[in-house]
Amino acid sequence: MTADRLNLLFITIDQLRADVVAGALHGHVPTPALDRLRAEGTSFADAITAAVPCGPARASLMTGLHAFNHRAIRNGTPLARQHATLGTELRKLGREPLLFGYGDIGPDPSAHHPADPDMATYELPAPGFREIVQMRFESPLDWIGHLRRRGYALPEPQPDRWYDLNKPSGPAITDPAFYAAEDSDTAFLADRLMDHLDARRDGVWTAHATFIRPHPPLVAPHPWNRICDPATLPMPLPSSVAHPFRDAWFSQPAVRGLWHGFDGDVSRLAPDQIAALRAVYLGLVAEVDHHLGRILAWLDDRGLADRTLLIVMADHGEMLGDQGYWGKDTPFVQAHRVPMIWRGPGVAAGHVVQGPVCTTAVAPTLLAALGGTVPPAMDGAPLQPLLAGGQTGADAFALTELDLGHPAKPTRFQTALGLSPHRANLAVWRNARWTLVHLNGGLPPLLFDRAADPQETRDLAADPAAATTIAALRSAMLDHRMTRADRRLTGHSIGA
């Protein structure tokens, strides 16, 4: 099949841990669609997000850039308009990139008047994408309209935030949402995706669908709210890494959105609450998988499966209580490793790539698959050799960045660690053997032996014998940053 006749369906599932798809948490709820895709395509056992949280992670997915280059380093930090994106480059191929869901991209103030309504949201599509379904996290207007048409009495005042729409129907964490399963945000988005693409099925289409679940607040509709028995689940990894980062992370309650009405203090969660939260999270995963299965069946029924390049992945992971943490704003692998599965022409079936791969490779890979030219500024390299059955080399690595500051409202990290906004950040370098966490502001590093300690629970940095390893990893990280510093114009020489 020629690249110009190939459909693209790029599905992002927000906050999905990799070990739910393949690992310790796999099998506790049914995931037949994800299991089918792993059998029919190529999956990556060690795909690592380039950044956390959602906005920076998606900026890297869309631009193929590390955060140190795109600089959209926080939710709400604008993405500068000079950066090429997957959408702008696909348009050069005559394609119209369609977005079903939300993009989490903040607009560049230099391109908008301050009164422009776009300046009131950080959840715009990446440049080049056309928003088909408005399912922004803070204002899912299309879903609100659907619920009203279905006769639901929505919370008052008029809901304009995702949080308001996710109050369970009872006091228990496992109580169901107020809406039926067929009217959930996940069901609604899948329905709209298939309805819209059905009208385009005779042509060539390019679609990005972004499912919000299993992102908190953790509430699921019946029967997904109780499909997983909390008593059957393993408890999270115990706390083990003592570090100033940990002290700062727990210095203030900070996970208020974990479920509706929660005060944010995860240090006070009881074991039964932890188990219930993990069960609801897995129930939401099972719900997303169910609708993914519907999409796969739709592709089969319409005869589109053989001419559609499909990628299913997450933007980042979720700590889910490991070492006491929840969410994704940590330097640990549970928040950084993501499931990533590719299926389609030229993709090996049943193949698993074992070595570390950074998500900056996604946009270049898609452009290469569809016959485009990868801009030299993009940091990632196309993954086609790996999709064809190859493995990463001994020099494979992944870089993850996390910004912990805020320019206007000092964060708990700035306050607890005495850091300015520009020094409250960290970078994580992972190769096949080691994880190095370099923290700005003079804080001590973290070092994990990935081979002996894949869950990153035993910090080796204080061992004098680790000094040589830390120095080598820091050097590799610095070399990479120096090599890849903004390359948009460095290939040009005026007057030469």
Could you characterize what this model shows?
The chain has helices at residues 18-21, 32-40, 54-63, 67-70, 86-91, 141-149, 185-198, 244-249, 271-301, 333-336, 362-369, 384-387, 412-417, 467-484; strands at residues 7-13, 42-44, 47-48, 51-52, 97-101, 130-134, 206-211, 308-314, 337-338, 340-343, 351-353, 357-358, 397-403, 425-431, 434-439, 446-449. The chain has 496 residues and is of the alpha/beta class. The chain has a single domain (3-402), classed as Alkaline Phosphatase, subunit A. The strands form 3 sheets. It has an 8-stranded mixed sheet. A 5-stranded mixed sheet has the order 4-13-14-15-16. A 3-stranded mixed sheet has the order 9-3-12. The radius of gyration is 22 Å and the shape is globular.
Number of helices: 14
The total of beta strands comes to 16
CATH class: Alpha Beta
Report how far apart the termini are: 42 Å
Radius of gyration: 22 Å
Q: Structural class of the secondary structure composition?
A: alpha/beta
What name is given to the CATH topology? Answer: Alkaline Phosphatase, subunit A
Largest sheet: 8 strands, mixed
Global shape: globular
Assigned CATH superfamily = Alkaline Phosphatase, subunit A
Q: Tally the structural domains.
A: 1
Strand portion, in percent?
5-15%
| Average pLDDT level | 95
Q: Helices and strands, in N-to-C order?
A: EHHEEEHHHEEHHEHHEHEEEEHHEHEEEH
CATH architecture: 3-Layer(aba) Sandwich
Helix content: 25-40%
